[in-house]
Amino acid sequence: MFLSELPTSEYNPFYHTYIMALGEVSLMDALMDGKEELLSLLGKIPESKLSFAYAEGKWTLAEVLVHIIDTERIFQYRALRFARNDKVDLPGFDQDLFVPYSNANGRKVQDLMAEYKAVRDSTITLFKSLDEEALKRKGFASGSPMSVRAMGFIISGHQAHHLRIIRKRYLV
């Protein structure tokens, strides 16, 4: 399934910027290429950069990376629930409440790489296991309808969004 086949009715408009950041790509390519891109970038980051924040009140690089991982876990869980036809409206989450309890700034690059790889591999395995019908199933998250396939693109687009910020503001 390609991004151009995803109707905007399958996700909240809040996520449109993330999704459009991907360009025309298949869902599985977005997930697999995104994995290689982030792991390649992480492999080049010195430990000393993890504690860097580009401005007062902004997250450190380590916090941004853990945020990417946390968000993927949440969207993967939502995708599983909706793929299994769960109709419960799943609550949103406050990313700013997660970060202080993430222990991100006590982590090493290698630990972040291993955790990210485990989470992304799990995401890829989940999406590979789903047939077309499951990918099109919808549920509700944060009061908005969302399809399983949209969540796969959101996971990838959210990461792409943060990678642009990392390159522009953290790795200069």
UniProtKB/TrEMBL annotation:
<feature type="domain" description="DinB-like">
    <location>
        <begin position="36"/>
        <end position="166"/>
    </location>
</feature>
<dbReference type="InterPro" id="IPR024775">
    <property type="entry name" value="DinB-like"/>
</dbReference>
<dbReference type="InterPro" id="IPR034660">
    <property type="entry name" value="DinB/YfiT-like"/>
</dbReference>
<dbReference type="Pfam" id="PF12867">
    <property type="entry name" value="DinB_2"/>
</dbReference>
<protein>
    <submittedName>
        <fullName>DinB family protein</fullName>
    </submittedName>
</protein>
